[in-house]
Structures are given as structure tokens and as C-alpha cells.
Amino acid sequence: MMPVALGPAQAATMAALDRRIREDAWSATVYQTLASRPQTELWGMEHESGELVAMMVLAFGPWDAELELIGVATEWQGRGLGGQLLTLARQRLQQSRRERLLLEVRSNNRTARMLYERHGFRVDGCRRAYYEPSVPGGRREDALLMSLTLAASYSLL
Hints:
By secondary structure, this protein is of the alpha+beta class. The protein has one domain (3-149): Aminopeptidase. It has helices at 11-21, 28-36, 81-95, 110-118; strands at 3-6, 40-46, 52-60, 64-72, 100-106, 122-131, 141-149. Helix 1 packs across helix 2 (28-36). The radius of gyration is 16 Å and the shape is globular. This is Ribosomal-protein-alanine N-acetyltransferase.
């Protein structure tokens, strides 16, 4: 599978995949808004049938970018799709001359943390009790702040 750029026309499809992946999924309206922003890129992985099975949202700032979302449908996890999307994120940042890629992840999401660490991300900090409980009556979860430094700096000349 090769990554494909996603736009407003795929907003409902992105929202449907997001609902399959996580409880606090974004709506189609949110995806339409994100897709219309010039500083945001949405990428996906489609099965040969055309089914969207993985996606990511990158938001670009002046010097860095944030991985706002990366998700893979449960039945497609463990096949390297998340890694392919992270490789693409790194390429897009290098092409746009950004210095760092930032993200936050639930502290108990070991699978995601291991993926990020394999791709060179390091923990920078923690937001205590940041996430709502994932189960009713559960405890709030910490968010780990992670980053990947791509370059010390880029010359403006």
C-alpha cells in the first residue's frame, strides 16, 4: 500500500475509520475543517479495494509540526502501516524544512509508544491526568509528550 493524500471529499470516510479506532473520534465536520486548512495535511493508506485502513493528520507550524493523529484499523495493525505513515511524516517535514515533529500519546499505550521510539521519538514531558478515562469509572490518563528532532536548524538564506 502506498500513502494517499486525503481531502474534504474523504471526511466522512476518515470519521468512520476514526470511530473504528477510538472512542473519542472526530466528526466528519472536523475532518472537513482540517482538510481545508493550508497548514494541515491528511494522509491515508488504502487497501486495493479502496477501503481506508490507516490515516494521519499533520499540522505544520513555523519551525516544527505536530502529529495530531495517527491510526490504523484494528484488523490492519501489526503490518507496518503506522511505520509507513511515520516515515512519510518525516519526509514531509524534511521537505518543508521543519526541525521537529511533536506528538502526545496516552502513557499506557505501549504499542504506540514502542512504534514512536523505534522511529526515534523521545519523551520530553508529561501532562498529568490529561486524558479522560478510557473506561467508565476509570482513572484519567497521563499524556506523554514526545518529539523527533530532524535538524538542528535550517538557514533562512
